[in-house]
Design goal:
Blueprint: H1 26-56, H2 61-94, H3 105-124
């Protein structure tokens, strides 16, 4: 009869479970890093959209709100990517089995993009109701403080 090797770890005291060496392959670590970099690329794209809105979208609170929504989403995505990268790396080091895919967050990101785009279009095309002045005097415009030369009709 042959003696079986001790696979319980730590000299037979049962300190750690046996490790499946298929999970410790370098390709698994690199796949985790590629996933992390993919999430970061998406976050940079979202942040770029927000910055483009701020720089080229004109001035006003509507543009700032849209840019804030995109920038907040980008920062949340960076935090999520960082947390998931370290969580998966820890699972790889411990040799855990199980599912590695994430079915919830990609759906949330798509819904967020739809929501942020809808906010952007809604705020861009929203028209304030304008009521002309009641008297025949010249109206002062809101933006530059110049007097209008258009005669008002009652």
């Amino acid at each position: 009869m042959t003696a079986q090797p001790d696979t319980s770890g730590a000299g037979g005291r049962g300190a750690s479970p046996p490790v499946d060496f298929k999970l410790l392959r370098p390709k698994n670590y690199f796949a985790n890093e590629r996933t992390f970099i993919g999430w970061l690329q998406l976050a940079v794209t979202m942040g770029g959209l927000g910055l483009a809105l701020l720089n080229f979208g004109g001035s006003g609170i509507r543009i700032r709100i849209s840019a804030f929504v995109f920038e907040t989403g980008a920062l949340a995505l960076i935090v999520y990517a960082y947390i998931m990268f370290w969580h998966r790396a820890d699972r790889l080091r411990r040799g855990e089995r199980g599912t590695w895919d994430d079915r919830f967050v990609p759906v949330v990101v798509v819904i967020f993009f739809i929501f942020a785009t809808a906010i952007n279009f809604g705020l861009t095309f929203h028209k304030k109701a304008y009521t002309p002045p009641v008297d025949n005097l010249s109206a002062v415009t809101m933006s530059w403080g110049q007097k209008s030369t258009i005669p008002r009709q009652l």
